[in-house]
């Protein structure tokens, strides 16, 4: 039979663990977001040194983007009725197009430097901020929105100096949907998929 002191110790330990668990989870998520940011920045830094910015960004999106979340956000309510196979094809084409657009917008910083800034929680995701410095002296800010809702820490949006890639993708796809009469396969082909 347990003594009163053993029971008190057990209750104190259990209540302490319950109090610390949410803080531990937040710290773990922030550490994972930081690690993802460091990996992405290392890959971009390598690409900034050469002429391989677009292929590097396409690979980065393929490896670290939450393509299904991006596709659902871009398509909005249309994603709910889309065929799963068509949705997967669209997700690949959409993220590849987003990578190409980001590469075009990052081109003035090629040859410059990129470094990790802050990582901070925002509602249900984390912002990973990178600072950009061009050889010309221009500077910029690249922000990734990252989350582990898919089971792995992945990014679902990128913002370059107030240019929101998810919002730009939404506008572009809405225009393509109008042009193609809502045909998701035709939109996917237009995006290069």
Instruction: Let me know the average pLDDT.
Output: 86
Number of helices: 6
* Number of DSSP strand runs: 5
> Which radius of gyration do the C-alpha atoms yield?
21 Å
Residue share in β-strands: 15-25%
Order of helices and strands: HHHHEEEEEHH
CATH topology: Nuclear Transport Factor 2, Chain: A
The strand line-up of the biggest sheet is 1-2-3-4-5
Domain count: the total is 1
Kindly, what is the distance between the CA atoms of the first and last residues, rounded to a whole number of angstroms? 68 Å
Q: What is the CATH top level name?
A: Alpha Beta
Q: What low-confidence regions span 5 or more consecutive residues with pLDDT below 50? A: none
The largest sheet is: 5 strands, antiparallel
Q: Tell me the helix content.
A: 55-70%
Looking at CATH, the homologous superfamily is Tgt2/MlaC
Structure characterization notes:
The chain has 193 residues and is of the alpha+beta class. It has one domain: Roll (Nuclear Transport Factor 2, Chain: A). The chain has helices at residues 4-49, 53-64, 67-75, 84-106, 165-179, 184-190, and strands spanning 113-122, 125-133, 139-147, 154-160, 163-164. Strands 1-2-3-4-5 form a 5-stranded antiparallel beta sheet.
